[in-house]
Design brief:
Shape: elongated
Number of strands: 0
Strand content: under 5%
Mean pLDDT: 89
Radius of gyration: 22 Å
Helix content: over 70%
Structural class: mainly alpha
Distance between the termini: 18 Å
């Protein structure tokens, strides 16, 4: 019985950069702050309008391009988001968040090579962020570059030993490469860190099933179901037959 993969969603860094001025608020700052307020209220068209107004006044504000790029991404306008992150990086070449977020947009467009390139640049600028390695690991996994993905999940866990999603996805790679003992350890660690990780519970139950440890398999099935997880019906039927019980 095959395990089920859930690659956890890659997310944008949503922290807004700030324009700092000790004096009275300028017109571009007013527009920028209004744009942030509209964004927080999910009024994306209005936010874009205000960010654009700020850029008409001062086209050299990397922070405004960055935030307008996030807003375009939130609207699903991926090409416009990339264009704004390009401008942010052009003005501020060491802006790690712009590289990270542009990489995320490329990932969602299916351009895995560009995504990996941007995540790699983000790592060059900040090698201590577990999320950068984790997201690059997912992109590598999507390319079926399992060794590279494994390296990145290892690094993410090294930086953040309580990174449940990294344990889960590393465990899935181990299972794909028939290293089921290691997969079991990682799924168990993911569950220890995050007991609500239903996918890890399901995948661990599959390993227990393969080892004929049916009581443990049922325990994980019940816990996953209590979290709202829908168990694969074929697997459930096989477990019932092998264990000689219905639940």
């Amino acid at each position: 019985m095959a395990l089920k993969l859930r690659v956890f969603s890659i997310v944008m860094i949503m922290l807004f950069s700030s324009i700092i001025n000790a004096c009275a608020e300028t017109e571009e700052e007013e527009a920028f702050n209004k744009g942030k307020d509209y964004f927080n209220r999910q009024m994306y068209d209005e936010a874009i309008s205000e960010f654009s107004r700020a850029l008409e006044i001062d086209p050299g504000l990397a922070e405004v391009y960055y935030n307008r790029g996030i807003t375009y991404y939130s609207k699903g306008n991926l090409d416009q988001a990339i264009s704004d992150f390009n401008k942010s990086i052009e003005i501020k070449p060491d802006d790690v968040d712009s590289y990270y977020n542009r990489g995320t947009v490329y990932f969602n467009k299916g351009d895995l090579n560009a995504s990996i390139s941007d995540y790699t640049k983000a790592i060059e600028l900040d090698a201590n962020d577990a999320e950068f390695y984790y997201n690059r690991g997912i992109a590598y996994y999507k390319k079926d570059s399992l060794n590279e993905a494994l390296f990145d999940f290892n690094k993410a866990i090294e930086i953040n030993p309580n990174y449940a999603k990294a344990y889960y996805n590393r465990g899935f790679i181990y299972s794909k490469t028939n290293k089921f003992d290691l997969a079991l350890v990682d799924f168990s660690k993911a569950i220890e860190v995050n007991p609500g990780l239903s996918e890890a519970l399901y995948n661990r139950s599959v390993i227990y099933f393969s080892r004929q440890e049916y009581d443990k398999a049922w325990q994980d099935v019940h816990q996953a179901e209590s979290l709202g997880y829908v168990i694969n019906s074929v697997f459930l039927e096989k477990l019932k037959q092998a264990s000689g019980r219905n639940q």
